[in-house]
Amino acid sequence: MEGDCLSCMKYLMFLFNFFIFLGGACLLGVGIWVIVDPTGFREIVAANPLLFTGAYIMLAMGAMLFLLGFLGCCGAIRENKCLLLFFFMFILLIFLAELSAAILAFIFRENLTREFFTKELKKHYLRNNNTDVFSSTWNSVMITFACCGVNGPEDFEAVPHFPHSSWETTTPEACCQREIQSREGMFVNKEACLTGIERFQNRQGCYTVILNSFETYVYLAGALAIGVLAIELFAMIFAMCLFRGIQ
């Protein structure tokens, strides 16, 4: 009976670690995507120290979970006490680090508000200056998502024009409608857009557009994080029970 219980514990341990392995792979994939994403999110993340740190924490956590899930599976199948103890200690450290990261994210959540991005845009945006990383990134985001500013074109009323600009408009070129949403896409009517005709401009703010685009993924990421924490907790319990049961 005791042998059957130990065997059951071993395979449950393997199952939980397999899910940890998958969770780590997902976090690793998301972290890599945020850092190397070609649409320009990397520069936006780099402009905010909190987001920049969070992206690399996610990458590190994903890599460690990926490795520990693999080691946990090996330790369970081979019934190696040293490997199980090593796994337990490190999964405990990761569990505590993830809880700390969640608490910090909750405390500093005001840095992701509409007002924060609006202030940063008005402060650093240089219109069509593609040599400036911040401006070029915002232009890429506005073109890709067919949006304008954080709240709308009114965000650019306080942004200065380039000297000798031929257009007296507050709307940047990146807010003009295109036939294809890419930098290579042809403008629907650039002259009409830059002279202020609204039907040739993208009027919706990027904050709302991006939030709506990623809303499902945000809830999915939150559910995944809670699931990973629960799986880690059970994995630690099974690891210790298996450790104590191995002769």
Task: Give structural notes.
This protein folds into 2 domains: 1-110 and 233-245, no CATH class; 114-204, no CATH class. It is elongated. Helices cover 68% and strands 0% of the residues. The longest helix has 40 residues, at 206-245. It is built from 8 helices and no strands. The protein has helices spanning 2-36, 41-47, 49-78, 81-107, 114-124, 133-145, 190-194, 206-245. It has 247 residues and is mainly α. Belongs to the tetraspanin (TM4SF) family. The chain crosses the membrane at residues 12-36, 56-77, 84-108, 217-243. It comes from Columbina picui. Its main location: membrane.
Explain briefly what this protein structure is.
Keywords: Glycoprotein, Membrane, Transmembrane, Transmembrane helix. With 247 residues, the chain is mostly helical. It is built from 8 helices and no strands.
Characteristic key phrases:
single chain, 247 residues, mainly alpha, 8 helices, 68% helix
Shape: elongated
Helix percent band:
55-70%
Tally of DSSP β-strands: 0
Q: Report, as a whole number of angstroms, the end-to-end distance.
A: 15 Å
Evaluate the radius of gyration: 25 Å
Helical stretch tally: 8
Largest sheet composition: none
Low-confidence stretches: 162-167
- Structural class by secondary-structure content: mainly alpha
- Element order, helices and strands? HHHHHHHH
How many structurally independent domains? 2
Fraction of residues in β-strands: under 5%
pLDDT averaged over residues:
77
